[in-house]
Amino acid sequence: MNILESFNYWIVMALMMCGLYIMIAQGNLIKKIVGLTIFQTSVFIFYISMAKVTGATAPIIKEGLELYSNPLPHVLILTAIVVGISTTALALALVIRIRQAYGTIEEDEIRAKDRLE
Amino acid sequence: MNSQLPILLVIVPLLAAPLCLFIKKPTLVWLFASIVSVLALLFSLIILSQVWETGELVYSLGGWQAPIGIEYRIDLLNAYLSVIVAALACICLLAAYKSIGEEIKKGKQTLFYVTFLLCLAGMLGVVVTGDVFNLFVFMEIAALSSYVLIAMGKNRKALIASLTYLLVGTLGATFILIGIGLVYMLTGSLNMQDLSVLLLSAPQSNTLFTAFTFFFVGTCLKLALFPLHWWLPNAYTYAPSIVSVFLAATATKIAIYILLRVIFSLFGSEFSYHTLPLQNILMTLGLAGILVCSVIAIFQQDLKQIFAYSSVAQVAYMMLALGMNNISGLMATLLHLFNHALMKGALFLALACIMYRLKSVQLSDIAGLGWQMPWTMAAIVIAGFSLIGLPLTVGFISKWYMLLASFENAWQPIALVILFGSLLAAVYIWRIVEKAYFSPLTTNNQHIKEAPLALLVPTWLLVLANLYFGIDTRFSLSISLHTAQMLLGVAP
Questions:
Q1: Is B162 an interface residue toward A (CB < 8 Å)?
Q2: Model ipTM value
Q3: Which residues of B touch A32 (CB under 8 A)?
Q4: CB contacts < 8 A (A, B)
Q5: Do the Cβ atoms of A39 and B167 come within 8 Å?
């Protein structure tokens, strides 16, 4: 498989790994959520780029055009984006509550406070 | 009316959830939510009896035929799962009136019922849908509302537990989404029925392997298969008691349902077990999970923590049985889905009773309570027997089939591990029994009375179900036998 031909998948992979790494390595809860969002976005790009057909246009019926890109993955990903937004919103709301309860959003400080109890 | 049942099962709780917001009074909201859950149970029972008599039910949403439109396709497995989920939701709501009234602030109680109904709608949606993308969306509805439910716990650790669950759960769901994308690239279809035919004839490419792996790892994160289970114990421990009951009894079952569908309906057992080393993976992780998590459970001081780790071990039992790859093994998995929901439901409800009186579920705090709260403690003992797998309880039936399955494969050492796992369960149940019956009553506990009837009745309903279905096994056995035959494609 030609690397250049499937460059979109390489970009998706790179973004996905960045997101996962941030989620695992960062101790700051907001940064973890940023990592999660990057991870999810890479999947959105994966869906959108796989629908592209070389030399095709947007799926609007018009004379003289015969090749159309597949619109279904775009529709799916619209739904997935909504799910992603709700997840991020809920996660941020939880972080606000955690900050109110613990006074910090650093994972190791939270753990230290839990241990003191 | 009857032909609309599959959609009603999902749409009634889904629409009822926002309606709760208009009824401000907690008592009325509770009544409304209970009626909705009873309706859902009724629908699922009618569906089950219809499927049992006439076979698969198919419902095309908006009249669009599959594979263009979304269809709900209900066979025995879906109907069975929907009955489990709806029945447990009913019992949880029955107990919620007292327990939630105690554990959640008055202003927030309405919101509890809203999210609970949303969670129920999401779970039922996962179970009935025949479209993989639709399944992802419903799974996220159920997951998002369960994060909120867990965060309602009083202890501030509930917030951390909820956020951890959110990060892991979203990771799992996104893995499944990648799997769906890859499968769509291969076949151009999202309909499960369609996919099962198309994937069977698809060439064995790396895309196919990758898709299966993403599906598998994603669902394993969701079902807390050892060693991907670290989010579960805290989530169950710090959630409000009723939420622990509901999630422990249903959430992992839904994930196992998805795994069964992926293995048997999408990719086919031939591909999963013979082309890929699924058997070895499930056996290894299952055995490790049973031993490690049962041992961890023995050393916990918090009763909820004990049963949360035991839940991970029980999930590992189901995976072990699934890994046997024979009809008794699959039957054992399906039986244990139902039986584990009954026993963990009863155990966590008994803990809700203790929480209601003691405001704590620490092992050290229940000293001598066996005589103060006889009904609650008796419920823990009987459900504990079921967890161990003693005869006359449901636990025995599923353990029996697990043993049969391992003997069929001539794997005697595995059978020994299953028995040893039961022994470990006996140890952590015994620690509770010893503390409750054979320790002197502390001065703090002298005024503790038995839990109110509103909590005892649902607890004992489940305890009696543990005994009833352990003696009269016709219902669970015949359904799991037929479902297993259907999934493996063997003629009955």
A1: yes
A2: 0.94
A3: 167
A4: 66
A5: no
Give the model confidence (pLDDT) of B29-87 as tens digits: 999 999 999 999 999 999 999 999 988 888 888 888 877 888 898 989 999 999 999 99
- Using the structure block, give the residue that is written with the tokens 């209900």: B74
Tokens 């698809």 belong to which residue? B202
Cβ within 8 Å, pair A114-B178: no
CB contact under 8 A, B166 and A46: no
Q: How far is CA A6 from the centre of its chain?
A: 20
Contact criterion met (CB < 8 Å) for A114 and B159: no
The chain B residue lying nearest A107, using CA atoms, is: B160
B178 residue type, one letter: I
Distance from the Cα of residue B464 to its chain's centroid: 19
Any idea where the domains of chain A sit in the sequence? 7-116
H or E segment and range at residue B74: strand B71-74
Contact status of A80 with chain B (Cβ, < 8 Å): yes
CATH class of A7-116: mainly alpha
Take residue B425 and report the two structure tokens written for it.
């369960």
Its pTM stands at 0.93
- Cβ contacts of residue A15 below 8 Å, gap of 6+? A38, A39, A41, A42, A45
Which residue's entry shows tokens 């669950």?
B165
For B190-210, write each residue's pLDDT tens digit: 988 888 888 888 888 888 999
For A103, name the nearest residue in chain B, comparing CA atoms only: B156
pLDDT, one tens digit per residue, over A3-55 is: 777 888 899 999 999 999 999 999 999 999 999 999 999 999 999 888 887 77
